[in-house]
Amino acid sequence: MSRVLVIGSGFAGLWAALGAARRLDELAVPAGTVEVTMLSAQPFHDIRVRNYEADLSACRIPLADLLDPVGVGQVTATVTGIDTAARTVTTAAGATYAYDRLVLASGSRVCKPDLPGLREFGFDVDSYDGAMRLADHLKRLAERLAATRGAGTVVVVGAGLTGIETACELPHRLRELGLAPRVVLVDHNAQVGSDMGDSARPVIEKALSDNGVEVRTGVGVNAITAASVSLSSGEQLEAATVVWCAGMRASALTEQLPATRDRFGRLAVDDHLRVMGVPSVFAAGDVAAARMDDEHMSVMSCQHGRPMGRYAGYNVISDLFGEPLLTLRIPWYVTVLDLGPVGAVYTEGWDRIVVAQGEQAKATKQTINTRRIYPPLTANRTDLLAAAAPELQARP
């Protein structure tokens, strides 16, 4: 029996596993010939991009409902080692798994520097568990510390997309909890949304203002305590909550492969998502730097992670059986940024030209967040394999 391992259960990992199952079905490979197994730290597929929202009840999907119907195995384990020479993977529990082909889709993590107080007092929305810890913390503040100075003040560090969405959502969340909201968005760049371009930035700045979010740009954070944040400008903010949204880096597992990595730690892959220079290993999602067109590389997003996973799943099985591989190219790029109660902003192209905003863009964002990025929830083999086709969705 040949063994295909998929590491990670995020957008890329899930669709790589389902894509592999679909390709086996297409090739009519007899049962018992190839074993596809996913290794993931949690037995869930989390809709990570919604972690800034208040209600995450629909954001954690049992992997068994998605993998069992298509015959993919799942092991709940934290992968700690990859030996490409021996073609084995080891876990924190000491177990070893051999592979004939491997898809690395272990995702990314928020970068937390060695900053005084950050690890003790900082929160994040990088994972489902992290977002739930933040929600529990805010609830406790409302229940016990509402009269304390700074109880309703939240400092959000990092004015990229996640930071902006989090900051825009928080004032309403705090009011719902009975706290008097003060949200301060901090970034070392001179402007918020530094990657969003000149077209979208005025929309974002107005939305932050309309939501009552204060902005501090061109400054960093020096230290965090349970009740305050010290900025590099010398300003001291009384705040009971700090949410760290500054910077992302690929999973540290990429460092175990003898391969080229970019400044985000992502592996260089070819047009078929094979890791360059490492036989029998594919990479997809946030751990891979894949070419989207002649000028642009992939970004860490579900927009790219989902199709990368589908193509990696198709190609890993095709490679195993000596079949032709598919080249991944995505000829369009959009960004839909949630701006809280005041709406959203929708941009098209790599220069991010605004094509919709306000309620129109918000409706598109809600469609994406609640339907478009979800796998079928029917636990039906036919539905799941159909959704795993290596095809590109149209613009939302």
From TrEMBL:
Q: Which cofactor does it need?
A: FAD
The protein's GO terms of the molecular function aspect are: NAD(P)H dehydrogenase (quinone) activity
Record protein name field: NADH dehydrogenase
Write down the Gene3D superfamilies for this protein, in alphabetical order: 3.50.50.100
Family listed: Belongs to the NADH dehydrogenase family.
Q: Which segments constitute the FAD/NAD(P)-binding domain?
A: 3-304
Query: What UniProt keywords apply to this chain's record, in alphabetical order?
Result: FAD, Flavoprotein, Oxidoreductase
Q: Name one Pfam family in it.
A: Pyr_redox_2
Transmembrane residues, as ranges? none
GO BP annotation list: aerobic electron transport chain
Organism source for this protein?
Mycobacterium asiaticum
